[in-house]
Design brief:
By secondary structure, the chain is α+β, with helices and mostly antiparallel strands. The chain folds into 2 domains: 181 residues, MutM-like, N-terminal (N-terminal domain of MutM-like DNA repair proteins); 148 residues, Helicase, Ruva Protein, domain 3 (Orthogonal Bundle), CATH 1.10.8. The protein is built from 9 helices and 12 strands. The strands form 3 sheets. It has a 4-stranded antiparallel β-sheet, with helices on one face. Helix 1 crosses helix 9, helix 6 crosses helix 9 and helix 8 crosses helix 9. Bound molecules: zinc ion. Zinc ion (ZN) binds next to loops.
Length: 348
């Protein structure tokens, strides 16, 4: 399943290739993964894609409102120029990371700012969750329609933004105003932006196992199975340890490991497992850097012990039994399974 680095890669590609384009028409095919297909068909034509960004594991296509279309030439463009100038200076000084921080700040203020009630009213977006196998990318109109193309958005330059998804485990929703704000507020902190204090608070406050906390989108938004396992291995923390039992040094080490891994993975355009490709159809390379994920039975790069897997909170978790010491009471018990793993369930 695409996680933060893959979705960030795809969102950056879409921002570069379709932002500023107007949607001319919409054709939907299978719609069982859409919140309200009629709203998508009715609301999208005529709107411009203002910006494409990642929010957790979602791709957010920010769209213009009717009011904005009218006001665009007047006060809006002035404000926009100010924002653009600020963005340019941040990008020059802080690079992509700064741009990400700024985008998320703007998004947060659009979603919850007290003085942005007008913004909030006018905010509208298409939310796309890729599920297991989804892809959203621009195509030339003459390119034949791939199998499993479930949505086509014709753009004003003749290209088509197509959503292709063989398994349809994703989600697509058109949301606006308060509904959009409420949807975004359901999610926890962005792991690339959260402070060490906030991260420690979110982890310490729960008896759930650390692996399931990392996967819980209301705690942190964007982390999935691969990057949870990789960061726990790097931080030498057992996936079955309770969040509440982690020391402050451990949460600090874990956050640093997670951020380092996510940044490196973004740089390498994500991990290509189950056919992930970016907006240009190019696969990511980070799967070559995996230290534990999918390596059960092979040697730990750090100590040489055999990597094992176990099920924590319903998800398979890869770990090194030597580097990542099991918490008390977790060794030697648990239900044995056919493969080398053991099954544990969380009490959460
Ligand atoms: Zn090891």
């Amino acid at each position: 399943m695409p996680e933060l680095p893959e979705v960030e890669t795809l969102a950056r590609g879409l921002q570069a290739r379709v932002a500023g384009r107007r949607i001319v028409s919409v054709t939907l095919r299978k719609t069982d993964f859409m919140d309200d297909p009629v709203a998508i068909e009715r609301e999208l034509p005529g709107r411009t894609i203002k910006r494409v960004e990642r929010f957790g594991k979602f791709i957010l296509l920010q769209l213009t409102s009717v009011e904005e279309i009218r006001e665009q030439d007047a006060t809006e463009s002035q404000r926009h120029r100010g924002k653009q100038a600020k963005r340019k200076s941040v990008v020059e000084h802080e690079g992509d990371e700064g741009a990400l921080r700024l985008r998320n700040e703007e998004l947060a203020s659009d979603a919850q700012g007290a003085d942005s009630s007008a913004n909030r009213e006018h905010a509208r977006a298409l939310l796309v969750h890729l599920g297991m196998t989804g892809n959203l990318a621009p195509h030339f109109a003459e390119q034949p329609l791939a199998k499993h193309t479930h949505a086509t958005f014709v753009l004003d330059d003749g290209r088509e933004l197509r959503y292709i998804d063989p398994r349809r485990f994703g989600r697509m929703a058109y949301l606006s105003g308060e509904t959009l704000a409420a949807e975004l507020l359901r999610f926890g902190a962005d792991p690339l932006l959260v402070t060490a204090e906030e991260f420690a608070e979110r982890i310490h406050g729960s008896k759930a196992r650390i692996k399931s906390l990392l996967l819980d989108q209301s705690v942190l938004r964007g982390v999935g199975n691969i990057y949870a396992d990789e960061s726990l291995w790097k931080a030498k923390i057992h996936p079955g340890k309770q969040g509440a039992l982690l020391k402050r040094e451990e949460t600090d080490t874990l956050l640093a490991a997670l951020q380092k891994i996510l940044r490196k993975a973004i740089e390498m355009r994500g991990s290509s497992i189950s056919d992930f490709v970016d907006a240009e159809g190019i696969a990511g390379d980070y799967q070559q850097r995996h230290k534990v994920y999918g390596r059960d039975g092979r040697k730990c790069f750090r100590c040489g012990a055999k990597i094992r897997w176990m099920v924590v909170a319903g998800r398979s978790s890869h770990y090194c039994p030597v580097c990542q010491r099991a918490p008390r009471g977790m060794t030697g018990r648990g239900k044995k399974t056919k493969r080398a793993g053991r099954v544990w369930t969380s009490k959460r």
